[in-house]
Amino acid sequence: MKVEIIEKAPDKNLYEQVAERIRSLIVEGTLKEGDRIPSVRKLHQQLSVSISTVLEAYRVLENQGWIGVRPQSGYYVMERNLPILEQPSEFELSKLYDPVDVSLAFRVSAAMREPDNVKLGAAIPGVELLPTAALNRIMGQVLRANSETAHSVHSYHPPQGCEQLRYEVAKRLIHAGCIVSPNEIVITNGATEALYLSLKAVTKPGDTIAIESPTYYGLLEIMESLCLKALELPTHPQEGLSLAHLEMALQQQKIAAVALVSNFSNPLGSCMSDCKKKQLVGLLERYNLPLIEDDIYGELYFEGNRPKAIKAFDTQGLVLYCSSVSKTVSPGLRVGWLVGGKYQIKVEQLKMATNWMTAIAPQLTVATFLANGYDRHLYKLRRAYQNQMARMKSAICQYFPTETKVTRPGGGFVLWLEFPDRFDAMVLYEEARSHKISVAPGNMFSPSGNYRHCLRLNAGLPFTVQIETAMETLGNLIKKQVCR
Ligand SMILES: Cc1ncc(COP(=O)(O)O)c(C=O)c1O
Predict the structure, then answer these.
(1) Which pLDDT tens digit goes with each residue over 302-312?
(2) Which of 221, 299, 327 to mutate for ligand 1's pocket (most ligand atoms within 8 Å of CB)?
(3) β-sheet bridge partners, residue 208
(4) Which residues does a 6 A CB cutoff place in the pocket of ligand 1?
(5) Which of 6, 188, 263, 473 fits 336 for a cystine, CB–CB 3.0-4.6 Å?
(6) How far is Cα 484 from Cα 323, in angstroms, rounded to an integer?
(7) What is the pTM assigned to this prediction?
(8) CB 278 within 8 A of CB 308
């Protein structure tokens, strides 16, 4: 087996990079449990690093429980014994067909933002992973070059957003299978505004939206603000929303739209197959039903190619496609986009009425970065998230009760955990908070308050000693509840 050459990263020790590479091969499944890993000598030759660097990397991996040594035989991948979280607990039918009013207790999300917490609750990327130096430099250039012209960053611009950025977004959408012209795109203040405008464009107060269960709680907040009702549909941790249940629901009641995260969803990490995406679009066409697709994690795949968007299969303009750079480049720049399909004009009118336009300086900064440096950055970022996810799972194995079930997302950076029913995530949330750790209790992700025995954890932060200690603390708190 050939291990790719190591690119020298200035901010990391070489042995850490070697360890990271082997860990990725294990997580990706190239190296399976029980497989022999390359000998120290072989890796030293392949990577052109010293024997002591490889030995140090193997020592780290051994300490972390990834590999073990067999006398006279070499290093092997250890058994991880990670359980796979299968289908979430089935809904009772009465719950399934009763639209639920969205009313939320979002004090939890405020606690997630408390400044000195270990942030395992919110789905946020570690700022160390973001290309902040490049962005700062570009932003400076943008301000210097565009401050005094008639068309400066200080003027009003058309609501659709800057052409340069729409062009870059359209180019990137080709990788998601979407052929979209820059004119079909509206730049928004993050994916949040894209979701808001999309929902507002296709609904009126009192309408029912079919959603994944569990679902991204930000979507629920938007729905609540627009006085919409939610119909939770069973969602498989790997394959996503149940189309059979969606169709049954469509036969029985009026549904104004579907809203879901298509690739590496938050919180389940599910990713629909192309075949299922096509079937879903067929269903939308049959019922003339709009779909709001949130594809914010689509570029964060760990293996193979970028998964297609549902929008790629949409020939009738029923899909409103939403995304942003918040998980890849910078959540603070607030740059997102929306492809409105046949609702485009309505979306543009709403954008104008809401805030006229998204600030130009961040748009130009993101456009410049997308054109230059983004692909290299994304390549490294995907590896970092994959590695962090693996480290988090390893900590779960080590510190959490054996009954813990955990998802295996193929991208993104959130993990969903299920515990026996006697576990109460709200109790854990309060206890963890007193230890200055934030977690996201499962019931935040369901308007009907399901999943109180579940938890979402953020794997977007570099795995440090502080995070490992927090995971150990969480493990002990969970065991106190579960292992009575
Ligand atoms: C699925 C999903 N959609 C949208 C958002 C919000 O994105 P933005 O920060 O671009 O508004 C998030 C952030 O956590 C998310 O997880």
Answers:
(1) 988 999 999 99
(2) 327
(3) 229
(4) 123, 190-192, 216, 218, 261, 266, 294, 296, 324, 326, 331, 336
(5) 188
(6) 44
(7) 0.86
(8) no
